[in-house]
Amino acid sequence: LEYLSSCMLSEPVISLVNRLISPLPSDHDKVVFDSTVSESNEAATRMAEICIGKFEVVALRQSWHGMTSETHAWQYQGERKGHSPTFPGQFMLPQPNAYRSIFRHPDGSYDWKTELSYRWQMIGQASGGSLAACIVECVQGDGGIHVLPDGYLKALKSYCDEREMLLIVDEAQTGLGRTGELFAFDHEHVVPDILTLSKPLANGLPLSAAITSAPLNTVCEQNAFLFFTTHTNEPMMAAVGDKTLEIVLGCGLVNQARERGDQLRDGSRKLQEKFACIGDVRGRGLMVGVDIVGDPNSKEADPGLAMRLARGMWQLGLWCQLQSRAVFRIGPPFNSSCEQIAEGLRIMEDVFAA
């Protein structure tokens, strides 16, 4: 069957749920399926609103969580312009930008703890007392491949717990192995209150999920939580998602992403040593960002140079997507071979040297 009513379950849906929750903490066994991460993120915040009884949402600068009116209100990128007013009760944390942040220790290293504390103090002053949830990506895919520093996610969970907020981790881009762990939050050994998944869940077909714990689900049920769309629980999408998970879990693709990601990142850093226009190389697993600058001292981004480099690589058969004005977002397929990664790095070097 391609389609059933949203209130019906089918064998593919049940099989997908069982496979999806098997690697998660034992109490995270309640799943809501939809089509896009916009829907699943909105479902997640509605769960938080129901459970906490409040409505304010905190997100990171340069985040990307969707294109519905509510999810668009949490993300702080240029696409906000012309789409005002947004939903009330939205607050922004600084982007964890280790390369450009003004918060520094005396030795010049990134002082994210002071930065995070300072901003939470400001949110406390601005909030109307209705903080419900904080939503975060462990690696900002559309925001320039900024990885949360070690300890950041644990600190964020502590800030949420202190304020009786829920932590939502959006793994639309990082989930199911791309960072070298099945879930990006596994790097930090932090379990979010709610997890959302999308793009890789059905290998690019429209399937998303919001996953939470049995205790939170009980509160939702007691308070008449409701969220569904026309395509909730579609059997065909569930069957594809179930097969995708079977392959990811059974064919060593997570280890493959870790190994090829190390190769790609190490190779990009060797290019950085040769070419001054590469200001920073960052990432995790098969999510790598190469930051193009006009001046390595000022760290000023150079979008014009980045575009010329992108065109040069395209002409030689390598597609490198530009994000955040001048950052190459490089995310090869999980099954990329060692030889293919090496060829891509060779093309990059040829173009940078031209």
UniProtKB/TrEMBL annotation:
Gene3D superfamilies: Aspartate Aminotransferase, domain 1 (3.90.1150.10), Type I PLP-dependent aspartate aminotransferase-like (Major domain) (3.40.640.10). One of its GO terms (molecular function) is pyridoxal phosphate binding. Keywords: Pyridoxal phosphate. It comes from Dothistroma septosporum (strain NZE10 / CBS 128990). GO terms for cellular component: mitochondrion. PANTHER family: ALANINE--GLYOXYLATE AMINOTRANSFERASE 2-LIKE, PTHR45688. This is Uncharacterized protein. Belongs to the class-III pyridoxal-phosphate-dependent aminotransferase family. PROSITE patterns: AA_TRANSFER_CLASS_3 (PS00600). InterPro entries: Aminotrans_3 (IPR005814), Aminotrans_3_PPA_site (IPR049704), PyrdxlP-dep_Trfase (IPR015424), PyrdxlP-dep_Trfase_major (IPR015421), PyrdxlP-dep_Trfase_small (IPR015422).
